[in-house]
């Protein structure tokens, strides 16, 4: 099915199942422990051995010698895999560095060996006996020190790394009010619950990987390319994923080494990347240095806006795209954005929930708060004055498909009680706490991609959906089931959803906030094909047949789905293919974050008292799971604002705090109250579902609202994230 014209009235609009809060249909399996995760596929590989990864002890250089004799002779050891015996390996197009290092070492903790044993304990103990001699080379590990060597990277997702409109330098110089500030954000770890894990088994030349991977088809292609085998010989199975946040978009060392280990020892092998290895072995969100300049008139109306970003990655890597939202969010005739990429020998930087906007808005939305104060304009009103209903770089000829930022700001402010805020910083006290409120806009692009599904009705009238779409804790099972139920006129409990298997039709996968909208649109397309088949079998015109209550109806006639499907069932398969609506119109999601904090007058401890937000993301397919997605993202935003940072040892090139004891993330006590409002919106140019993504929107701007609330409480403006106690105390003492 081609989607190249705005959606008209269609079966989804009935809203009998879609748009209604539903419990997750996979919830019971998860809370009872019966949902099989990648490392737990005991029934599929009952005799699996265990692999333990040995990581490089240097950040850059080469291996001079490896002595594996003691490890190979250790109790229970079945085999050892290194670059010397792994055979010829390729490199996935989505991997920056080889997943198995040696003799060249590209980053600290890069996998250099896998020890396979009959138990996890034996594999781990034997790994300690490996002896490796390295020749270390000097590396570059300090973003600030290397930023002067930053270069303009190639195109970013098809867009140039730099952009210009009008005359930024002239407009900024002539502005009545100017903001010119630098902001920094640190490296971040994904810190998901389930580690990267894989169980691998060979059957002759065919490989099956039960793995934790967000993008099944990408993974199949990358495995085939890396191992040098036909894509048809690779099967990936990933029905349940315990979080990913982008770290599992691409093939990682667990999958490759499990495959190599299983081939080496002739039996299935399980490999999980140990928690302490994840930050340095896998991917992370890169640190940024950002300069933002805004020029406005005395009323806060922007005429010039510029955003420059420096970030680092391994050779061949890419930048953190933190200035991209600044091209679209606010008005201003004179504009510029620039990204500069610095070569660093730290572990690979790559996608993490809302790459670009998540850290770009940490800077931009604080700069907007600073502009509001400089102009004496309320921060909510300032953002409303600078709303724009079209691409401000391209002009009115490229309008937004829908844009309800102003509605989010107004509804959110009213619900949160923004009118009670004292605009003068440091004036509100509650006992020993200084209290303040902050606001920030939320923005995240709406991305879509081709997505397929297979849907059928069996002889009992059950509807079955199959697609390789994944569920990373976001509720994919449920919204896909809701879509099928709505389209075929059955209740949700009459739908069976099967996900995460490369034998199923290729979907858009989970990432970039494109998954829900694209995958349900793919199910919509397949369901339309099945409806046509069922109607034809019933002898009804497809465009007149009504599907409801398990029946196909026409006027006063009806036939059951079960009868039409017959003993063998009836199936249809199709994909949604998107035309150029996403280029003719700007498609994006919007929101407004509000936060109230308390800051202790003596210790400078920051306590979030409450968070709230209003969001516009097209049709909300399942308000219950969407709310969960947003509050989870808001919580991640709180972590980015107050505590999360991978600390770089700039002498040796690794992240020091590489476990959950020292890499801090928010817990329940850190976020006592969160409210979420969804603004009613249908975007007929987004998809037949008239929906958009929502999973990443909630993190975008959340941390900036906290930073602005801290300023309102204390009068202290911090621009170096995270906003920790030591920084507040230092500023307070000054």
- Contiguous low-pLDDT stretches (5 residues minimum) are none
Radius of gyration: 27 Å
Describe the strand arrangement of the main beta sheet, using strand numbers: 4-6-2-13-10-11-12
Number of helices: 18
Say how many strands there are.
30
Q: Summarize the biggest pleated sheet.
A: 7 strands, mixed
Would you write up a description of this structure?
This protein is an alpha+beta fold and 734 residues long. It has 18 helices and 30 strands. The strands form seven sheets. A seven-stranded mixed β-sheet has the order 4-6-2-13-10-11-12, with helices on both faces. Strands 1-25-19-20-21 form a five-stranded mixed β-sheet. Strands 8-16-15-14-9 form a five-stranded mixed β-sheet, sandwiched between helices. Strand 22 (546-548) and strand 23 (551-554) form a beta hairpin. The chain is globular and about 70 Å long. It starts with a strand and ends with a helix. The model has no long low-confidence stretch (mean pLDDT 97).
Write a concise synopsis of the structure shown:
With 734 residues, this protein is α+β, with helices and mostly antiparallel strands. 25% of the residues lie in helices and 25% in strands.
Secondary structure elements and their pairing?
Elements: E1 2-3, H1 27-31, E2 49-55, E3 61-67, H2 69-72, E4 77-82, E5 104-105, E6 111-117, H3 120-127, E7 131-136, H4 143-146, E8 163-165, H5 168-174, E9 177-185, E10 197-203, E11 206-211, H6 216-227, E12 234-237, H7 253-265, E13 269-272, H8 278-281, E14 288-296, E15 302-313, E16 334-343, H9 357-375, H10 379-385, H11 405-416, E17 428-430, E18 433-445, E19 451-457, E20 463-467, H12 476-488, E21 495-499, H13 515-538, E22 546-548, E23 551-554, E24 557-560, H14 561-565, E25 570-578, H15 581-584, E26 588-600, E27 606-616, H16 623-642, E28 648-649, E29 654-655, E30 674-678, H17 702-714, H18 725-733
Parallel strand pairs: 1-25, 2-13, 11-12, 15-16, 20-21, 27-30
Antiparallel strand pairs: 2-6, 3-5, 3-7, 4-6, 8-16, 9-14, 10-11, 10-13, 14-15, 17-18, 18-26, 19-20, 19-25, 22-23, 23-24, 26-27, 28-29
Helix pairs in contact: 9-17, 12-13, 16-17
């Amino acid at each position: 099915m081609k989607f190249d014209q705005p959606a008209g009235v269609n079966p989804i609009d009935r809203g009998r199942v879609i748009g209604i809060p539903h419990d997750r249909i996979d919830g019971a399996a998860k809370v009872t422990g019966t949902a099989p995760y990648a490392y737990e596929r005991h029934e599929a590989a009952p005799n699996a051995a265990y692999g333990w990864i040995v990581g490089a002890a240097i950040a850059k250089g080469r291996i001079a010698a490896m002595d594996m004799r003691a490890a190979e002779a250790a109790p229970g050891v079945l085999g050892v895999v290194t670059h010397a015996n792994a055979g010829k390996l390729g490199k996935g197009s989505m991997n920056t560095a080889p997943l198995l290092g040696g003799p060249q070492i590209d980053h600290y903790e890069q996998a250099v060996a896998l020890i396979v044993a009959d138990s996890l304990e034996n594999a781990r103990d034997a790994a300690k006996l490996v002896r490796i001699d390295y020749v270390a080379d000097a590396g570059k590990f300090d973003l600030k020190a290397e930023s002067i060597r930053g270069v303009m990277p190639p195109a970013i997702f098809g867009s140039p790394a730099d952009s210009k409109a009008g005359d930024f330098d002239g407009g900024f110089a002539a502005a009545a009010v100017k903001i010119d500030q630098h902001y920094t954000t640190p490296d971040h770890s994904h810190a998901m619950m389930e580690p990267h894990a894989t169980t691998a088994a060979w059957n002759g030349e065919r490989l099956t990987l039960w793995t934790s991977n967000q993008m099944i088809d990408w993974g199949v292609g990358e495995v085939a390319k890396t191992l040098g085998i036909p894509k048809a010989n690779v099967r990936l199975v990933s029905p349940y994923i315990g979080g990913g946040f982008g770290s599992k978009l691409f093939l990682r060392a667990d999958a490759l080494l499990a495959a190599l280990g299983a081939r080496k020892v002739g039996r299935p092998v399980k490999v999980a990347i140990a928690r302490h290895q994840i930050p340095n072995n896998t991917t992370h969100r890169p640190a940024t240095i950002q300069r933002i300049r805004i020029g406005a008139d005395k009323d806060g109306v922007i005429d010039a806006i510029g955003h420059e970003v420096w970030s680092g990655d391994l050779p061949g890597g890419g930048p953190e795209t933190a200035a991209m939202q600044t091209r679209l969010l606010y008005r201003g005739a004179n504009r510029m954005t620039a990204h500069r990429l610095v070569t660093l020998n730290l572990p690979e930087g790559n996608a993490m929930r809302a790459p670009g906007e998540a850290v770009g808005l940490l800077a931009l939305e604080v700069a907007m708060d600073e502009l509001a104060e400089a102009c004496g304009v309320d921060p909510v009103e300032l953002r409303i004055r600078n709303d724009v209903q079209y691409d401000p770089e391209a002009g009115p000829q490229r309008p937004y498909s829908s844009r309800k930022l102003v509605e989010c700001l107004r509804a959110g402010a009213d619900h949160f009680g923004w009118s009670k805020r004292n605009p003068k910083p440091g004036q509100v006290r509650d006992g020993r706490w200084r209290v303040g409120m902050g606001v920030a806009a939320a923005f995240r692009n709406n991305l879509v991609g081709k997505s397929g599904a297979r849907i059928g009705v069996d002889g009992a009238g059950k509807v079955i959906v199959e697609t390789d779409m994944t569920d990373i804790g976001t509720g994919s099972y449920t919204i896909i089931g809701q879509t099928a139920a709505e389209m075929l006129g059955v209740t949700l409990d009459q739908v069976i959803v099967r996900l995460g298997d490369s034998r199923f039709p290729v979907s858009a996968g989970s990432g970039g906030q494109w998954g829900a909208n694209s995958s349900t649109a793919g199910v919509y397309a397949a369901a339309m094909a099945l409806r046509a088949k069922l109607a034809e079998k019933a002898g009804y015109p497809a465009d007149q047949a009504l599907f409801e209550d398990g029946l196909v109806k026409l006027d006063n006639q009806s036939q059951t789905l079960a009868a039409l499907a017959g003993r063998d069932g009836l199936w249809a398969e199709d994909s949604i293919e998107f035309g150029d609506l996403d280029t003719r119109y700007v498609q994006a999601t919007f929101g407004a974050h509000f936060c109230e904090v308390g800051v202790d007058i003596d210790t400078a401890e920051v306590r979030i008292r409450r968070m709230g937000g209003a969001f516009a993301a097209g049709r909300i397919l399942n308000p219950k799971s969407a709310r969960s997605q947003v509050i989870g993202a808001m919580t991640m935003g709180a972590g980015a604002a107050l505590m999360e940072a991978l600390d770089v040892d700039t002498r040796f090139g690794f992240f020091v705090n590489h476990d959950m004891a020292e890499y801090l993330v928010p817990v329940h006590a850190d976020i006592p109250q969160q409210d979420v409002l969804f603004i009613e919106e249908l975007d007929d140019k987004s998809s037949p579902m008239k929906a958009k993504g929502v999973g990443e929107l909630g993190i975008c701007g959340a941390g900036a609202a906290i930073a602005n609330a801290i300023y309102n409480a204390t009068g202290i403006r911090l621009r170096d994230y995270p906003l920790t106690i030591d920084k507040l105390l230092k500023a307070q003492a000054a």
